## 1
Amino acid sequence: MKLRKVTAASAAVLALALTATACGSEDKDDSGSGSSGGGDKIKIGIKYDQPGLGLKEPDGSFSGFDVDVATYVAKELGYEANQIEFVETKSADRENALARGDVKFIVATYSINDERKQKVDFAGPYLLAHQDLLVKADSKIAAGEDLNGKNLCSVTGSTSAQNVKDKIAPKANLRQNSGYSECIAALQSGAVDAVTTDDSILAGFAAQDKYKGQFKLVGEKLSNENYGIGVKKGDKATVDKINAALEKMVSDKSWDKAVTENFGPANYKNEPAPKIGVIVK
Ligand code: GLU
């Protein structure tokens, strides 16, 4: 009798556990962990405030090179454009968003480096950019070392901010915002003398109608930024699938098309398509 009671109780616990598991896996599919289409959604992390790369338009649509890469890769993974849910992943949030499983992968000007590789895995690279400086059109700042003692803006959790502190201008008065759009506003108002991050990002801002003629890129290649697609640590199957998709995007010329459409208006002279797995140090 006693035994039977225990068994009944166990059965109840088991039933509850099964229900919980069922709910859990449903949530998981919603969050984009499903490996094929069939009505599932996929969540992809992008930037929302970087014109030409990852931008949320006023009408709620998304544009930019990273958005096009993400859309192409998703399609190869079995998801149509209408099955994608883009999620904002700011520079400082990317590793945590992947660890928590908020998104399946991140295409957000996300440079591959050893520190990040401790926490996440990367597919790619799919673009090589370089750290540069954006200044007012009449600025005398002409090199990284000119920034020492000057007011400079970059973004928390970015390689750009880290490089300034470690090498480029340790004596600059560095202000760190959560996104580059805030830095650009600070440059326009005169609150800072320069903004530093990847040339790809800075060119996109400089070409915006509202800033036309106001800023210039200094043209310094202060670093190599190899953009990768971030994936949860250990998810090798997804890395392999994304790498295959990126190879196809280059070979069928969709990569060139995305470059022309997104970087053409900013007159950004990008590097040629990188080889998958080859990091330019
Ligand atoms: N590519 C650099 C990085 O991953 C700077 C751009 C960004 O903050 O996304 O940190």
Note: Confidence is low (pLDDT under 50) at residues 1-37.
## 2
Amino acid sequence: MNIRFPENFIFGAATSAFQIEGNVHDDGSGKSIWSSFIQNSTVGSQEDEYAKSETFCLHSSYWKRDVSLLSELKLDSYRFSVSWGRVIPSGNGNVNQKGLQFYDQLVDNLLEHGITPMLTLYHWDLPLELQKNGGWANPNSPDWFLLYSKTVADLLADRVPLWITFNEPWIFMHLGMIQGEHAPGIKSPEYAAAAYKNILLSHSRTADLLRSYNQIREIGIASNLSPCIPASPSPADVAASKRMDAYHNRFFLDPWVNGSIPEITDQVFGKHNPEWSDSELNELGSELDFIGINYYTSKRIAHHDHDFLNVTEHPPQTETTDMGWEINPDGLLEALIWAYEQYNTPLYVTENGAAFNDVIQNGKIEDYSRVRYLHDHILQCKKAIEQNIPLKGYYVWSLLDNYEWNHGLTKRFGLIHVDFETYNRTIKQSGYYYRNLISFNRHPNTSDLKSRRGLNLDFLDNFQAAYTQGQPAGT
Ligand code: GCO
């Protein structure tokens, strides 16, 4: 299949502040809920110890090198997030100029390299001080978020065209406030119910604010989507998969795009289901310029009497990544079609990628499983475009190996390998593959031969050949 994309299609890679920056600089930053979550987790492996030091990729020191790597990979765009506590240490008070300066310089440097910034305002790192004041369950939280967003937009709206308010709200609500597996480690549907309402309002109010900056081109959100496949054709499993779809896929998108609160909130929050006034409801459903889809896997769902929502997930039936997630590229096409049918809004794939247990041999990382994963998913994007889905870009998760939340530093998603002791960066074979794909799309005529070789599907059947062919010219 020809893998040539429309001329203005954006190829990028994504990261988030907490996962890469490293909390080592005494630049006045405030701590986040993740910082305290890490310190309370048990240390087992060497990786855990590195994680506790919270240096991760030390991107806050090596950011210029990382921008050069983005450029070396020929990426059109870079999706990053701003750390709220770096900009406003207490979350709702004085601004930390050094923190702001970091993002100011980062954006300038990206633009100097011809890389379009896509900025996420909230990628899960709530300032700890705000959590002490109730976090997202505090009714003032939409005002806190608005103030923070205004501070960032005042600085960067003139240079950043693509803005995302929230990354994966379902994950940080469900895992952080109902299951307690992510920061802030709360297990309370009552707390989550209050937070749900405040997060919904926060996005709507902030999106309105961002619209007042004329230079901002597009405003969206990034939502994790997974097709929920019934584990069997039984009516009970089919009904369970519908419940999971409503909870996992529609819980935030329905209110934000269509202005409607899904019925499943009754089952999720029970007697704590929040009340909505007419004027609050009217605030929802504002038009988004895009929906960002974070796609990794699909889920096999069955009915189970004793689980949350009477739903359980069956183990994958095919090959999995190092996260244990089923590899299902078709699910990406399904998610794109579903999202467009439901919400009639342009789309980006704002995250797609895979963790594998990479090994460095002779200074090289031959991560062909990741090459195959990316290639198979990128082909699905091409198919979506051929089916007239307005898909505008694709971002690999992630640019760098980084801190994978409650998995610490043990799961590597990067196009670039990071040594967490020395902070050395090494481009993996998947990075070269992606670079070739981008070159091919930029110069379809001139570099046909060289690039085509790297993109021929057959090369995936022969890993050694792929290695030779995937190398950039001159290395
Ligand atoms: C998420 C986050 C990323 C993760 C990635 C892999 O989607 O969970 O946006 O921060 O690291 O998805 O799990």
Note: The chain has 19 helices and 13 strands.
